[in-house]
Design brief:
The protein is of the alpha/beta class. The protein has two domains: 189 residues, Glycogen Phosphorylase B (Rossmann fold, 3-Layer(aba) Sandwich); 157 residues, Rossmann fold. 42% of the residues lie in helices and 18% in strands. The protein is built from 13 helices and 14 strands. The strands form two sheets. It has an eight-stranded mixed sheet with strand order 3-4-2-1-5-6-7-8, with helices on both faces. A six-stranded parallel sheet has the order 11-10-9-12-13-14, sandwiched between helices. α9 packs across α12. The longest helix has 18 residues.
């Protein structure tokens, strides 16, 4: 089957910088049995194409993105007809995918895996902040022949909107990120890691206030924060204000190869997000034998309490208490780590590809009847 995948980006020609690892893993696996063309809306400013992970990447480029995306998909369809159009993320990707599929008279699926369905007005985040955003989501989700989502909480949001959806987690590529058994803690300060861009939805302010509370209890720890700073140093300023300078290190962006030893050295992944469909880093940490404490979002919510510890959003006191709980009880920490790894291994990148391929076959078999 010839497949058209519509993505916002995450498919940089380097294969390492500005990529979405789960999306690359899916593309690579689909390309083994299908002819895959990926239409990236905003990877680069200028339209271009290149090969990556066995697929052809068509970068749409800036300006009139919706129209240019449709034109690019239609042009490739004329060279050889697509059997399926798939959007990874709803929003503009979903709308373009649905419009293209209707135009070409082929089936279409939309996968929701971001903030498309939320409206966090105080920080200006979410696909449903405006009437235009709400209309776009309505058209994309109701126009798709099938809707999938990364985790159970996102499925619940879809159901609340009257959209039937199937859960399809975006799993880890175990060849590139191999499993490592959970390990006992070493002597010395606990090693904590937080992996996310510094932005309002990841809510690093709550994370740092939790760490300040943890420090006051006498717990010795070090925190590595991995991710690009989009807040112009505000989080680093808060670290200094809270007296955490000697406990918190900012490592900046890391490629997957650079990130792996950071995760392996950690005793605990800590996430403080106000919204997540995943996060994918929870799966990566689990595969590497590291358990997670975080807010009640995405996979953290659906894995708790056996495979993750979840606390309310925006509650540094509860987050600090949960971190302390796992650090103070080594048997519990290892038990949670093993349960998390079991779940992540059972829903790896191969599982994701099989789920999507089964869906494609079902839709293709019944389309037009």
């Amino acid at each position: 089957m010839k497949l058209a995948l519509v993505v916002p980006g995450g498919v940089d020609r380097s294969g390492e910088m500005r990529v979405i690892p789960a999306v690359l893993a899916l593309i690579e696996r689909l390309s083994r049995g299908h002819e895959v063309h990926v239409f990236a809306l905003h990877q680069e400013a200028v339209a271009d194409s290149w090969k990556l992970a066995g697929a052809t990447i068509h970068n749409v480029g800036d300006g009139w993105t919706h129209l240019r995306g449709l034109v690019a998909i239609r042009a490739e369809h004329r060279r050889g007809p697509f059997g399926m159009v798939q959007a990874i993320f709803s929003g503009p990707c979903g709308l373009i995918a649905v419009a293209a599929a209707k135009l070409l008279r082929v089936p279409c699926t939309v996968h929701v895996t971001g903030g498309e369905l939320v409206a966090l007005r105080d920080i200006g985040y979410g696909g449903r902040l405006s009437w235009k955003g709400r209309l776009r989501e309505r058209l994309a989700l109701r126009g798709a022949d099938a809707v999938t989502a990364t985790s159970a909480p996102v499925i619940e949001l879809l159901h609340a909107l009257g959209i039937r959806a199937q859960r399809v987690p975006l799993g880890v590529d175990l060849r590139k990120w191999p499993p490592l058994a959970p390990r006992p803690r070493h002597e010395g300060p606990a090693r904590l890691v937080h992996i996310a861009s510094l932005n309002r939805v990841k809510d690093q302010a709550t994370l740092l206030h939790a760490l300040a509370r943890l420090a006051k209890t006498g717990v010795e720890f070090e925190m590595d924060i991995v991710g690009t700073d989009t807040l112009q140093g505000a989080i680093a300023g808060l670290v200094h204000e809270l007296g955490l300078d000697h406990r918190v290190r900012f490592l900046g962006f890391k490629t997957q190869r650079e990130l792996r030893p950071v995760v392996e050295s950690a005793d605990l992944l800590v996430m403080s997000s106000r919204h997540e469909a995943g996060p994918f880093v929870l799966l990566e940490a689990a595969v590497a034998g590291v358990p997670t404490v975080g807010t009640t979002v995405g996979h953290i919510a659906e894995w708790a309490p056996s495979a993750a510890l979840a606390v309310p959003v925006g509650n540094p006191e509860r987050l600090a208490d949960a971190i302390h709980t796992l650090l103070a009880d080594e048997a519990l920490r290892l038990r949670v780590a093993r349960a998390a790894q079991c779940r992540a291994l059972s829903e790896d990148a191969d599982y994701t590809a099989r789920m999507f391929e089964t869906l494609y076959q079902r839709l293709a078999g019944g389309f037009g009847r």
